[in-house]
Fold this protein.
Amino acid sequence: MATPTKPPTQTDAVSTQYQGRQAKRANSRQRQRDILEATLRLIATDGIRAVRHRAIAKEANVPLAATTYYFKDINDLISDAFQLFSEKNSTRNNWLKEQAFLLLQEKSAEFPDQITSLRRSLVAPLLELLISHIKTQVDDIQARKIEHAFINESLRNHVIGESYKQPRGEIIGAITQFLELLGIDEPEADSHSMHALIQWLEYLLVVENTDENWQKARTIFGRQLSRVLD
């Protein structure tokens, strides 16, 4: 089996659709991007309640008039910052999906028409793949702070709540598709539980990053994979 490539870091977004004023010139788009990046940094340190035009202008090192020009409504600024964060974060999720389906393809060739053996053969390598993904996520503490800030904001902000459905749905859909190919009885239900467990373990390991908790994470997710696949 090929060794999985190293999980990617977050990369620049390339196709985010902004709710704020549409910037046409390259320098205007860059300034708008700088404002959104500054917004994410502020959210990571002080939370979404700290997002104000003056604070963002100071963080982005731009005139106050620039933030109000591109984002007259502070909710548009928060919404666009979430879209930017989601697109950047999707790089890692796409990597995980690609590696998992490559693994399934390789193991399927080893165990043609042997679904039980195929499922069992996937438990150990999938565990290593997921632990690698979780470690990359945990190492990026700033991104995890931003993520949980937006999750909490979705309880108050309907727009963020609706926007959050898309990246979550894509992840759930990918896991469900993977499990369907293995003939799992309730693939969507299991995909929800696996996604929730990954998010919880990431949170646990950010809050208390210890060898003991990493061992717990490995044991917990190993049991979950065995339950679903074996």
Q: What stands out?
A: DSSP finds nine helices and no strands in the chain.
